[in-house]
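Exercise: predict the structure of this protein bound to protoporphyrin IX containing FE.
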Amino acid sequence: MPCLQSRVEHGQLYSKHSVSRSVPAVLLILTLNWLSKRWGYLSPIRVRAGSFSFTMVVNPSHIKTILRSSRILTNRPMMVFVMEKWFYTPKESLHFYAAHDPHTSRPGEKPEHIHDFQAKISIKYLSGTYLLAMSERYLAILKTRLLKLDIPSDGWTEIPDFYLWLQSQVTPSVIEAMMGSQILELYPGIVGDFWEFDRQIGNYSRGLPRWMIPSAYTTRDRLLANIKAWNTLANRESDRTQHGQEGPEWDKFFGTKFIKAREDSLRTHGMDDNAIASENLGLLFGSNANAVRAVFWYIFESFKDLDLQESLRAELKDCLKPETDDFDVPKFSNKPLLQSTYAEVLRLRVATTMTRTNEDANFKLGPDYTVDKNMTMTIFSSITAHNREAWENMRPESVTKPLDEFWPERFIVQKSNKDARFSVEGLTECWMPYGGGQRMCPGRHFAKNEIIGTLGLLLELFECELVDLQQAEQVKPDKRWEPYGTLPPTKKVAVRLRRRAE
Ligand code: HEM
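Solution:
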């Protein structure tokens, strides 16, 4: 979100309160958060951030209207911004994202363009049997990797920076499961470069020139050049059209049918090698940045609270296939605490932004508010996550403990009897780590399997301890990252691992 100088007008266009000030990005979100708490979650808030203007929507009924209007709203302006500034799509290819021709679509509907095709492919190949195959492959690859580590059972091995360590284990496993193993062989530096790129997202957003952040540009250039080389090799050695019934479920060059289908569609639409490299960098980011940080918080919470860890471990044991000792992944979705803890981690640690724009006409949010044509409407997941009134209206028992607190059982219904189950029902406008509506994150099912499964593998293979519990209590989510996604930890967390003897 590009916001160096910002002007906040609470309901200026819409109601009586008005605030105006210049603030950096993080302060802007904190200010908006404070405003929502101070004035309530009723009217939209108009914000000017540098050259960018948007309307922040906080009222659940307005959010509902937006989610129900997926057919006429688009996230194109944000998409163009992100593709250009973050993933460096060449200028001559930006029209793929920016093109808007209302005459080619049915009246009242947004036209389909390349991004819509990509979205359909993601939804198809990140669900059902494809999802199961990719989740199982991820867990198998990660398990092999963890088994190879030199961590003995007769003494503790200390890991000084657990977040960094997780990146080095989880990211290559996700890449291999999704995009094949060849890319890792061709470009062994991909994991380090990717996380360096991730650290620079704020600088790319601000549009800082190359001379101010030369190494950020060099890292991204290296990522794009290597991704392009991999893509050329994969097209030479494999067949991108084999994403139907025919062809293998996975091959080392393209990985899954998901990647082949994306590649096939991008080529069919006439994208060139450089633009496709940017698309693939985008996917690398989408599939790793938020998820790996979420994996960290999920595991970290279970290391801090040993009772919680024991209960999670009991549910995880129930999910093992008796014959192989591998996880029966669909069983994760029957376990109340595993899922509720996951949802609570995402509620408190994810700070994503969902943007929607009506490019063709003014947009009626409700009887009292109309948003101008082309004005982007923005929903911040970290703000909806704290709207007590909405949570209370929808699910009174979910606010038994304050929303500022981490409460792993928040999403469990029927806590008192044996039929306890996990549910996010009724919370569509409150629990929004994955956005919502038609454009809701298609990778959410994989992310959930990845988050729960990674904890499962660690606890199955190792005894795990925090080195210093008191120090760990001081580790918080780094708010400076709002609103880019899952927040990283403010400090290093040291952990000890010992391989389980049995
Ligand atoms: C905790 C982990 C994750 C979080 C919090 C997250 C969050 C999001 C959000 C907020 C969006 C925009 C949704 C909207 O505008 O309504 C999104 C889009 C997307 N995500 Fe995720 N995501 C996660 C993991 C993943 C994973 C693991 C993948 C891939 C395997 C993935 C693939 C995508 C793709 C392809 C899109 C673009 C969809 C489109 O524009 O049509 N995400 N994600």
